[in-house]
Design a protein that fits this description.
The complex is a heterodimer. Chain A is α+β, with helices and mostly antiparallel strands. In chain A, 22% of the residues lie in helices and 28% in strands. Classes of the chains: A alpha+beta, B alpha+beta.
């Protein structure tokens, strides 16, 4: 008899052929196929090798709960490992291959593991690879990883993109089977915002697998008709190819949408919904018996799916094995398609007779499957112990159905046992989740019950949302029955009976775990790895619990259950990362003079999110040190400018602004006059230094605070905390103006000359009228608003000029022009750093979160006559020891020796051990001014050690330099230049 | 997580930065005999509550307000979201 190539199905387009390759061989499938259905239709039964024993495995299910058929999808530039053949939609030119086998799928040498299975049962790794401990990392782990494992990453970059997005709705419906569609229909008509997501690439869920009639239509036609109605509603969004992977607090769900024929590969959606319905159906479970993992054995419902949905009909001799009524639907569908059904092996004594044509082996069990690479037949035994051998090439098993309640557990809610269907149903969801299971996912196993359940629950939701339903009609369906007897595993036989196919866990492993006292479900799971594969044991968990229950003579609910955790299906890290990769990983902040600097030879360095000019190379300079040394010398001898806009700027105004500033800095600000700037040291409440900067009093109630570049955000947040949480009664207003004002430092003995050229005439910047630490609001270049501060980080006569950001680039060009005679130069962060080290100013490397004011030689600055953040705890005994760390300068005895940051300090006669450690170097540089390497560091009792010689040792770089301890202020210790 | 901001309505938790126990609002006085001890307790000693917890969140990617959120640490249910300024002003007035 010749068979049609496929049985007729509206979901398979036999006019559209698709070519694909599996393990190097070419095959044909059709539009609508999954890789699995196309392989089955091509008689490819052996798909994969198992995880641990390398047993031959075939397709076991028809959905995302597949434990066996994991393959690698090969793209031009990268591979997608661990793809489920049962969910990969076939496309023209698809290339896939088996994984975890060597040299080939058929002759897998690692299947030798199978022969040693007696020795590598549960807990094998734990017991065997205990010692010697260093062997684990070097020997055992690499070998095991190679032998046991899933697919391999190609490690190539995927050229397709991922994105992330938000969706909002009143009602999220997860799953588009009968319950989902009815729910979407009724809810959609009422006008509320509905999103219905479907994991599959077609809507309809279980209805796609059936051929009975709904309202005199085929289920697929009914799906199309109701979808048409739903799609008319603009308030309902239907999204296919999308799996909800997790439920999080307050109605937030994660979902991954796979896209076809698009530059985007996937979108990770964060869906925020007021209510959610879990219409995820139910999943069939297996029955363990000897060799129940042979290719050709699959779930009964899956055989039905392949037959009805995909029209796969090359099943020659099919046998079914069940404890429930649903399998008879499969039996009838097989017969009506002319397939040779050997019969149904039913564990029950009096199963209902559905059709006299079906041969039923009642009160019977399959005790063993026969075959090497494929199923050839089974041995069955009846109540009185008669053994019969039956030949078959496919066997459909059904141990009952588990409502698919994975998502309902994600917020920590435990499932509850239902005695009627012998399965767990969703527990009562807690208040912050709003999720309810509906229909089959709620344990309603007849189509009528599903539809009535959906109707009831949607009406409840509409009433909760204070919406009224519109008129709707429900489909008519013939009554169905679902009867089940509990039957969990075949006890007969001593060979292995597989429970978790993906992780190769057998009944014997569970028995062994129990015997070794791993008896709680949580222990059992981890010891045997039951349910820990990429399928999370969707077909096997409950069976495993039942076996544990039978061993311990407890009921299943008494044994308890482990809970499912996100994600529902595996997803790539890439999906979660989305487009936040490469240059989009974080924003890049450019300084206002960035383009000018780029055009003038600057190299850039990252400081936090900022890119700052680190030095400006001139033509003859072939080493960065040449540029930096030149820049430092120019500033020290003439004048230079540097963009310091990245420093945080906080504008503080209000009647209580002065008091506020005085409370957040540990040093006194109460007497700061208008028109003056002061250095401020900010402590954390625990007395450790948080940040430092300058604060200028522009007018009576107006202050401008600067922070270090890296702490700009955290200091602002801290100030808002101080204001809002500690002193809300204060009249003070804060705003960050970092981006609004550009700030240019103009430093060097000739800087006043430059400043006088740009400041408008009416402002006097003479030393007398605008002395060190003065500040003023002025205008420059004929009316441009600016703020001038006479402050210095370099130690030279210097100014910082603040102007609205948009003028910055013109300003620096203009400075170059008017500064020609003075040989003005731009300088970068490296020269800035060299000069501040020469001047002994603490910066980020010194303010490292462990340093107190006293460590910085600023202990006396902390005023104990006023309340300020951190004052009280800065006086703690432990922070005030006499021999504590002090900021010191260090200079190598030989100028050509280099001091390295991170080196630790030791007395020159001491050995390099932690107990002799006296401190460490925080910053170091070559000082062109001193013509020597110099450094700043913290040294125990440092102030009384000036003049001593110490060893600066860096065991990582293997350097050791003898250096002299000195005053940290190397240049102009009295500060005369600042005041010139 | 969704935080129902008293001024801006429901916002995603990723816009916020968490600080910790709202007891940080009760900063001790600096000039009392036991102030060092009080500050030590204020800064370092916390209840590790399984249940209702008042805590501070900052709307960093939003209006920069500090919020006092009453959250059940077991179920994550949020019962109340208040502006810290309002909360602080009312602190003396009720037993909240």
């Amino acid at each position: 008899m010749t068979r049609p190539i496929r049985t007729k199905s509206s979901l398979i387009n036999t006019n559209k052929k698709l070519n694909f390759v599996f393990n190097g061989k070419k095959y044909e499938g059709f539009q609508g196929d999954t890789l699995a259905s196309a392989l089955l239709a091509n008689d490819v039964k052996l798909i994969a090798r198992s995880f641990k024993y390398h047993r031959p495995r075939g397709i076991f299910t028809s959905g995302s709960h597949e434990p066996n058929a994991l393959v690698e999808i090969v793209h031009d530039d990268y591979n997608e490992p661990n793809s489920k053949a049962t969910t990969v939609e076939l496309y023209e030119g698809l290339v896939a291959k088996s994984q975890n086998c060597w040299p080939s799928l058929k002759y897998d040498l690692m299947s030798i593991n199978d022969k040693f299975s007696k020795f590598i049962g549960a807990g094998f790794y734990y017991k065997t690879f205990m010692w010697p401990s260093f062997f684990w990392e070097k020997v055992y782990e690499p070998v095991i990883r190679k032998a046991a494992g899933l697919g391999k990453l190609s490690k190539n970059k995927n050229n397709k993109n991922s994105e992330k997005g938000f969706l909002y709705c009143d009602l999220l419906i997860i799953g588009s089977g009968p319950s989902g569609l009815i729910s979407a229909y009724i809810a959609g008509l009422s006008g509320i915002k509905v999103i219905i997501v479907e994991e599959d690439y077609v809507f309809g869920g279980s209805l796609n697998n059936e051929i009975f009639k709904i309202s005199n239509m085929s289920p697929q036609a009914w799906v199309q008709s109701i979808l048409k109605e739903i799609r008319k509603l603009s308030n309902v969004r239907c999204i296919e190819n999308t799996s909800v992977i997790g439920m999080f607090d307050h109605g937030v769900f994660g979902a991954i949408q796979k896209l076809k024929e698009s530059k985007l590969e996937q979108i990770f959606w964060k869906i925020v919904s007021k209510k959610a319905l879990l219409c995820s159906g139910s999943l069939e479970r297996l029955i363990p018996f000897q060799n129940n993992d042979l290719p050709g054995i699959m779930l009964s419902g899956s055989i039905r799916s392949y037959l009805n949905r995909w029209g796969v009909n090359n099943f020659d001799k099919v046998l079914l094995f069940t404890n429930n009524d649903d399998t008879y639907v499969t039996a009838l569908d097989l017969i009506s398609n002319g397939i040779n059904l050997i019969g149904v092996v039913d564990t029950r004594d009096n199963p209902r007779i559905f059709d006299p044509k079906i041969k039923v082996f009642k009160s019977s069990q399959i005790i063993s499957a026969k075959g090497k690479l494929y199923l050839k037949g089974v041995d069955i035994v009846n109540k009185v112990g008669e053994l019969t051998h039956l030949k078959c090439d496919y066997l459909g098993i059904s141990g009952g159905w588990n409502p698919n309640i994975h998502l309902s557990c994600h917020t920590g809610v435990r499932p509850e046992w239902n005695e009627k269907i012998y399965a767990f149903v969703a527990g009562k969801t807690n208040v912050s989740t709003h999720l309810k299971a509906v229909g089959s996912a709620n344990g309603k196993f007849s189509l009528n019950d599903c539809i009535l359940d959906a109707e009831k629950q949607v009406l409840e939701i509409l009433s909760d949302l204070e919406m009224k339903p519109k008129k709707y009609s429900l489909p008519k369906i013939k009554e169905q029955s679902f009867e089940i007897d509990p039957f969990w595993f075949v006890k007969i036989g001593s060979q292995r009976k597989w429970v978790d196919l993906q992780n190769d866990v057998t009944v014997k492993d569970i028995e062994m775990a129990y015997a070794e006292n791993f008896r709680s479900v949580e222990h059992l799971k981890r010891y045997t790895t039951l349910g820990m594969g990429t399928d999370q044991g969707k077909t096997s968990n409950v069976t495993g619990l039942a076996i544990l229950a039978s061993l311990s003579n407890k009921s299943i609910p008494d044994v308890g259950t482990t809970v499912f955790r996100p994600p529902y299906i595996p997803l790539s890290i890439e999906a979660l990362v989305g487009s936040s990769i490469g240059k989009n990983f974080k924003p890049t902040r450019l300084t206002p003079t960035h383009n000018w600097a780029r055009d003038n030879g600057a190299s850039f360095t990252e400081t936090g999110l900022w890119l700052r000019a680190e030095w400006y190379s001139q033509k003859n300079e072939f080493h960065w040190r040449m540029s930096v040394d030149r820049e430092v010398n120019s500033v020290r001898n003439s004048v230079g400018f540097c963009d310091v806009s990245t420093l945080g700027k906080i504008d503080i105004q209000g009647k209580d602004a002065l008091e506020f500033v005085n409370k957040v800095y540990c040093n006194g600000f109460a007497k700061l006059p208008v028109g003056k700037v002061r250095y401020g040291l900010m402590l954390r409440e625990d007395g450790i230094v948080m940040d430092d900067g300058t604060t200028a009093r522009m007018s009576e109630n107006h202050f401008i605070m600067t922070t270090t570049t890296v702490n700009a955000e955290s200091v602002y947040r801290h100030l808002e905390f101080c204001h809002q949480c500690l002193w809300p009664e204060m009249d003070v207003h804060l705003i960050s103006t970092t981006d609004a004002w550009a700030q240019i430092a103009i430093a060097g003995p000739k800087s006043r000359k430059i400043i006088s050229k740009i400041v408008d005439k009416q402002f006097d910047v003479s030393n007398k009228n605008f002395p060190f630490m003065a500040c003023k609001e002025i205008t420059i270049c004929g009316g441009v608003l600016a703020r001038l501060f006479r402050i210095s980080f370099s130690g030279e006569l210097a100014y910082e000029l603040s102007i609205p950001t948009q003028y910055a680039s013109s300003l620096v060009s203009y400075l170059m022009e008017i500064g020609k005679d003075e040989n003005i130069i731009p300088y970068g962060t490296e020269a800035l750093g060299v000069m501040r080290i020469e001047k002994g100013h603490a910066a980020g490397a010194e303010l490292n979160g462990t340093i107190s004011a006293q460590n910085l030689n600023m202990g006396k600055m902390v005023s104990n006559k006023k309340d300020s953040i951190g004052m009280v705890l800065s006086k703690r005994e432990g922070l005030n020891t006499l021999d504590g760390l002090r900021l010191v300068g260090l200079k190598p005895i030989k100028a050509n020796h280099q001091l390295v940051s991170g080196s630790h300090l030791f007395n020159s006669s001491d050995t390099i051990t932690p107990i002799n450690d006296l401190g460490y170097i925080t910053s170091s540089c070559y000082s062109p001014t001193l013509k020597s390497s110099i450094a700043l560091g913290f040294l125990k009792n440092g102030n009384s050690r000036h003049g001593d010689y110490l060893k600066a040792s860096n065991p990582i770089l293997k350097t050791e330099v003898i250096a002299e301890v000195c005053n940290p202020i190397f240049v102009d210790p009295n500060g005369d230049r600042l005041r010139e | 997580m969704i935080i129902d901001h008293p001024l801006l309505g429901p916002r995603d938790a990723s816009e916020f930065i968490y600080l910790g126990d709202a007891s940080l609002l009760n900063r001790p006085k600096w000039d009392e005999e036991k102030s060092e001890d009080n500050f030590y307790k204020y800064l370092y000693l916390r209840e590790n509550v399984a249940g209702m917890h008042k805590e501070l969140w900052f709307h960093q990617q939003g209006d920069r307000s500090w919020l006092v959120i009453s959250r059940n640490t077991v179920t994550h249910e949020i019962f109340k979201v208040e502006l810290a300024t309002e909360f602080k002003k009312n602190m003396g007035k009720s037993n909240d």
